[in-house]
Amino acid sequence: MQQKIIDKDKLKKELEKKAEKKIPKDTLAKDWFNIDNMTLNTRAYLLDKLLPTLVVGMENMLMQVEKKKLLSEADIPTKFDPIIYLGEYLMRNNPHYIKDSGMSGYQREMKNVTENLKIHITNTICNRVSRMKEKIKEKQEQRDSVNQVKVQVANLRQQALQEQFNEWILDPKGTIPIKVIQNVLHDFFQNPNFKLETLCKQLNIADSMEQRLNKMEFTEYISSHIADLKSEIFEELLKHLCNCADEFREVIKTDMRRQMFAELFLHCDCAKVGFLDRQRTLALLETFYDQSPKMLRRLLRNPRQWPLIEFEEIELPEFWGDMDNKKHIYEDFDNVFLEINTSLSEKDARKKQSTLLKKTEDLHKRDKHRKSVPLPTLPEQQRTIERQDPNKILSEDLNSDSTGEQELYRGSMTAQGQQKGATVRPGSRRASRRMSVIEEPQKGSPMERGSRRGSRRMSVIEEPQKGSKGESSREPVTEQGVHRESITEEESLRESVIEGSNRESETEQVHRGAIAEEGTPRDSRRGSRKGSRRMSVIEEPNKWPAERQESPRESVAEQGSQRGSIEEDEYLKESVTRRGSRKGSRRMSVIEEPYKWLAERQESPRESMAEQRSQRGSIAEEAPSRELLTPKGSRRGSRRMSLLEPHKASTEELESLRETIPEAQGIASTSQSREETAKKKVKKDKACEPKSQNIEGKSWPGELSTCDLKKYVKCEDEEQAKLIYGNSRFTDLHSIIRNIQSYKEVKGRSAFNGVSLNLLQFVQLLETFVGEDVPLSTSETLTSFFKWGYAETKEEKMSDLEEAIQNASQIRQGLLLEALFQLWDSDGSGFLDLNEVDELLYTYKEGMEKEAMKTAKLHIQFPKPHPGQEVRLSSKQFQKYIELVVSELRGNEDQVLESLVEFLMTSLERSHFEGLRNSARRKWLHQIQHAAEISGVSLEPVYTETFKALTQDAQVHGNKKISAHISLLEENRLLPDRGAVLLRNVACTLDDAPFVLNKVLYRDMKGISFTVIDKGKPVHVPQVQHHGNIFFWNHSRKENDQNGSFLALPLQNAYMRIFGVLAVDTLRDPQKINIFLPHEIKFYQGVANVFSTAYHYVHSREHILHVVITGISWLYNIVPSINSITTYFIEPSPEQGSDYVLRNMMVTGPLGLTEIHKNPPTIFRKTCVFRDFLFKCIDSSEVLLASVYGENHIAIPLRERTGEALGALDFNIGKRKMLFYREYKDLQKMVKVTQAACYEILDELSGEKEKNRVLEIENAGEVQQAGVLFFRIMLQELQKSLQQLTSMDFVSLLLYDYRTAIQSKSLSASQLQELEANAKLIPDILTAVILFMHPELESSPDLQIWDKCKLYFNKHLVESICAFDPTAKDVKHNLKLIGDYIKGHSRIDVWRLGSNVMEYLYHWSHICLALIELNEKQSSAIIPPLPSKTDSCVYAKMPGASLLGKC
Fold this sequence. Notes:
The chain is 51% helix and 8% strand. It contains 52 helices and 28 strands.
């Protein structure tokens, strides 16, 4: 029907179109169109109803009049009446009754006019339709315009992205890995300021670098993800892309460096054992460091300091008391930083004065112009400047502003913000790291700028000569050596440096020195540390130079990273041989002709012209270089030589010249405009410079070879497993070993052992030593030095090979014995009966080895027998027992063990069904432990997987429907008369939750749970309805329905102490009688055992987090300059084929407030192309120093007892190059104590060591012990340090008379102020310590008199300090009085004093205060809010932090 109507309408429209073609329109009808509101309705009505017919009638009527000639013959009588005719016509042609016989052109046009008029009549269908059409048209036009704008914007964005593509370094095919771009977008979308987390979820980051993007694909890919971004965010994205392009260059440079070190490892590992000697490696690093020029040493990291050496290798007094700033990881870092800051401050003051003078003269000139007064003649100073060529002066001034000031500003190691006049992209690490080396210019020499593209520079201002103001001097405080350094206030230093972000330095950039001079060997090297710590490295001293002469040589200067002078090298030859040995046996002779190879390199025909010009042109370096290498009595003294005395004079001359420029206002109008134009041109030229596709002269091959170095490291487990798979003797064990290997989900971590280094650790150690600012040429030099210097004797190679074989044999034995244990333990109980094992072992070789096996039993301590005299062996105990048995048998141990394993394997009779059941149960047990590892420190997933394993096994292997719940022991504090402890149901199966969850069972109630706890063995009740002592949680259940079996199993920790009960019943099973079979009971015992392991695994991580929070709170109060500290734990990856992921457990902000994530974010390796330092830290289990997006990080691993990393601490120190030495030492203290606490927690978890309870508060419980563990270990460290002090250390401190020293007239004002502060510091700290030991003196008058009070400080007092327990019940102290003595002195005051005694006692007193206050508030102050499975986060700040001294 609808189709017919549609067809009819179409036909009608076609007929109308044909009629329009035949009959033309009459345009006279348009005169009817008038939209006057007064007549609109009437006009529309008439045009619609009357006029179409009336007009035609009028035409016909007029035609009749004309036909009858009535108008021409008016006198002729006629019967024709026009009105009657018209009326008849209207009646005959009424459109309601007569079909349309066709319309004239006038009528057709009138109809159109009518339709147009109807549109303008309100509240009509036509009007509404018309308005709707107009709105639709407007919206369509708007959409079209918006689309046009979007297309234009998209085109502009694509053009911008195409231009930005040119800033990236590309592979030879002109493409870039898509994974890199995905990481760029991922990091940008993760920025919380932009709120683009939803876009981040759409990114599917590639797993490999194979897929690449060219320019068009790059543009299209990014455009597809940012189509809806606002313009402001797109601009931020462009900045982010530019920064990432720079970062990617650094990633490639790092990859090149790591590739060098990886190849070096393979070269040095001649025996192919997979590891190198760590002590020999450190000895070579020390030698290279000692022989490097001073400029290069300031870029390298000191190999004698942490983190290149471990805390265990540092003597306790040196670790806690050494305050020598020279022992920083960066040589003389504090003083260099101070000099840079001083230069910035002086420049800022001069610039403000210059600006003020310019403003004054500008106002004066404007006043003169306003009065129409002609300009006065130039002053005398101005005419002098004109005679000196004003353009030259202006250009020099411009150069000093745009180069010297910027370079010196960049040299600031805490440069924050963007300096004036510098064209540096925000956040660009490369821009923030280009720093200059300021050396003395030759008088009258032009200012040169030896900047080099593609390499990073550091600004290291050489120290002035002794006696100059810039040098910090050490002055004695006591006659016996109590000293301090006269350095300025660190607080004011830090503030002035931050303010210096808007300043510009006035120091002229004269000439760049060679930052990467060849680290050629000298005639001495550092020998044994601590007597025997370092091994002999070099036996044939001339071997390396000879090899270097024969090997293909490549000029370092050709790579654009090294400069030097021939004169300097010639002088090196002469001066190095005159150096004496340092501390006798601590250095060994290395090279007889140290620079022969270097000299021949300079004569080599391969040397580039640029290098020759650089060598000939560096005249200004000769003097400082000679002065630098002049032999001194001590190495530390040679590092404090003056290099800036000539530079000072030239700087003063330039400053006097600069001060005349603000007064030269006559040429200001032209000079300023010229200066602005020049500056703009400089900026434009810098911005338009095309980026080189080479890195220090080397092209990128297109692959990141070392992004996954683990491919170079063979996994011994997998290798030995493959060998076992190929051995047909152990066919029955193959499937079990495959399962064991698949269950080891966290792979690829290297275990740190302090003796040897595998490839990952070796590469990371060398990279940490070299750092990120040293050019690749220095890494090549270090590589060549190692190839020459790392030599092993045949005996050492054989020893290494034997060690590798022994290690492989142990791994093989472990795999075989673990598989044998699982085959034997077919029910998954987790233990074997010793009697059953002995019965089978005694049948080996028909009992001929029975006596040897009995002898082996004498050398092992078996666990205590369970009730019933049953001795159970766990997997580790079983392996140890079999290894002892094998050691007593005759023959090769490997062959004997394989023979014994084969005998036991074939002797065990296991059916195929038992094998399948064993495999399924192993899988379920593994899922419980896996749930703990991926839980994010939460027990809820562990409970879920435990009940899932129980119910699945009951359904599959027992044909039962079970219910289960877990109850844990708690101290009964509310109702102690009902028992000292109670059982609380913490988890249960879902159906029983309303009746069981969170319910409490007391000892005076019915039930067998407390019987299980008392006896320590499972209790099985086959029929609960007949037992009489079963407590039913569901009281609504009828007695007739209380049928079923009940099994209660004890939950035991590693020390076999019971901490809860696992209960399983069949009350919900429809069968009335359904008892648990023996194999089911054994499996449930295995579930209880695995649950206990998982439970303590989670709690150990909670306790570690607790310790870390405590340590962070302690650190933040004395090192407030740390931006943030992030704590990570590792977990197995949820993706197949991946090794592990990181979970961001908590973040501590600048205020010390810790945000603990209840649902920790997961970080994958593939999303960290630019931030992979955390994974490198975990892989190598070594400390890492890295810079990401302009911020410096210190990544520190938290190690397990095996040496593998379980997590990491990420210390973000912002834009600062490094912490001050005091802050760096305090960071080391926090890390060492935290790691020691982790070891203690993990030892208690494993059960290998007995619990260590030193303080009384630790006996209050595990949570309380974890809360004070950090302070207790630090207290023990300090007590050990105090015990190692001599009596003279205390006597010298007590006898020194500060009043006599203050009266000295030779002291400066600052020194006098420091002495006055120290005169109050020492008595206050010592008085506080005396009050801890003698609280009865708080009201004694002797306390106010120092001469009497110090008499209490004697040998017995020191012994009491070393044995003091601040949490003992009998300890009562006036904390307010003690706090008044201590809290008035800052950490910096104590550090400046330079006294080890005061350093120890200061920390000791603060820790005692913290422990006393924690003991008073232990119910509420010690337990932090730990994570649980929700989507929010909580905040925590540990107590005791406020007690520590502020900086």
